Amino acid sequence: MEKYLLDTNILLRSSDANSSLQAIAERAVSQLLRQNHQIL
Predict the structure, then answer these.
(1) What pLDDT digit, counting tens, does each position of 3-33 carry?
(2) Do residues 29 and 40 touch, judged by C-beta distance below 8 A?
(3) I need a surface site. Which of 6, 12, 27, 36 has the fewest CB within 10 A?
């Protein structure tokens, strides 16, 4: 298990329904969690 520190841009993009990058940010975080990585 690796630890990943999320950049504020990832957090903002994943919470902004108007962002064209929302789906990409959510997919990246979801994939890390499915692979049992720790998100900080």
Answers:
(1) 999 999 999 999 999 999 999 999 999 999 9
(2) no
(3) 36
In the chain, where are the structural domains located? 3-39
Size (the chain), residues? 40
Q: What share of the chain is helix, strand, coil (3-state, %, to 5)?
A: 50, 10, 40
Token representation of residue 19? 């962002």
Cα dist. 31→1, 4, 12 in Å? Answer: 13, 12, 18
For 22, the token pair is 């929302």
